[in-house]
Each structure stands twice: as structure tokens, then as C-alpha cells.
């Protein structure tokens, strides 16, 4: 069996507040997030599904699960990356997201790629 470094996915996230699509008077704050998924391991792998945990400023938690990302199940050879963007709405001006991607390596091994917690927040100039 290969060591864990064979199955290594790096996930970077850049969140962005969408002021023009938000309506603070209605407690509706929209955020986009731009994701880069890079295979830094030595075995190719396919992204099968996702699991997100979204927490707003009132500590209300919503979990989202689904196949692939943005309608795709990208395959990443070692060194390859895949980029996409998506979004979410919160009822508060700040919240967090974290989760994981469920991956299937070319050798049949299932593993998870963790997505570290990141903050969704309106810019300080808008507070």
C-alpha cells in the first residue's frame, strides 16, 4: 500500500463578497468563492463528491452534499489542478465554510481531501 503522501490534494480558496447581489435590509449576504484543487500526490485521482459545512454568524449550520463540483467530476493527474467558482447566501454579514472532497485514486483507493475553514465576511468598509 502506498503512503498517505501518494494521495495528497491541496485546496486553496479565495472568498469574495458580492455587494451588488446582496440585500442587507433583507438579511441576505451573497458570497462567491474561487477554488483551486491541485493534486500534489503521486497518484491520479477523480473528485467524486463534496461535503460543505456552512455556519452563519448566528451559528446556524447548513450541510451541503453532492456529486462533483459545478456539475463536473474532474480527474487530476499528479501536478494537475482544477479551478471553479461557486457561491452561497448567508443571513448574516459573516460566516465560515469548511468541508471535504471525496476522491477516488486511480489505484482504487478512496480518500478525502480536506477543505480548511475559511471566513465569508463583508469588507470592513461596509460594516
From TrEMBL:
What PROSITE patterns does the record tag this protein with? APAG
Where does the record place the ApaG domain? 3-127
Gene3D superfamilies per UniProt: ApaG domain
Please give a single GO biological process term from the UniProt record.
error-free translesion synthesis
Q: Name the InterPro entries for this protein.
A: ApaG_domain, ApaG_sf, Uncharacterised_ApaG
HAMAP family from the xrefs?
ApaG
Give the protein's recorded name.
Answer: Protein ApaG
Q: Which organism is it from?
A: Leeia aquatica
